[in-house]
Amino acid sequence: MKAKTWSHILSNSKRKAFKEALSDTALAFLMNVPIGFGIIAFANWIGIITVTNEENVQLVILQNIVFTTVAIVRKTFVRIYFEKKDLERQLTSSN
């Protein structure tokens, strides 16, 4: 019984962690897209890179796909790690 409950709690925790990571990263994505355009435009303006408007869009899209994917995975695993530690602490203190 205890193992089944433990498994159920972890499964539910993983879903919650993924949902939280997805929501937080979606908000960050909305903020990062205009920031990405600004950074590349600034870099183009000061001469660090030379890009056309089309290349600017492509770079921002690529950058945001990579960072969004990494953020969702990282946030999910960090949340799961801390949820597991908290659950272990609760089980240890209740015994």
pLDDT under 50 segments (min length 5)? none
Number of domains: 1
Number of helical regions:
2
Radius of gyration: 20 Å
Can you characterise this structure?
With 95 residues, this protein is mostly helical. It has one domain (15-94). It is 92% helix and 0% strand. The protein contains two helices and no strands. The longest helix is centred in the first third of the chain and has 45 residues, at 2-46. The two termini are 15 Å apart. 6% of the residues are buried.
Could you name the key traits of this structure?
rod-shaped; 95 residues; mainly alpha
Quick structural gist:
By secondary structure, the protein is mostly helical. It is about 90% helix and about 0% strand.
Can you lay out the helices and strands and say which pair or pack?
Layout (H helix, E strand, L loop, with lengths): L1 H45 L6 H42 L1
Helix pairs in contact: 1-2
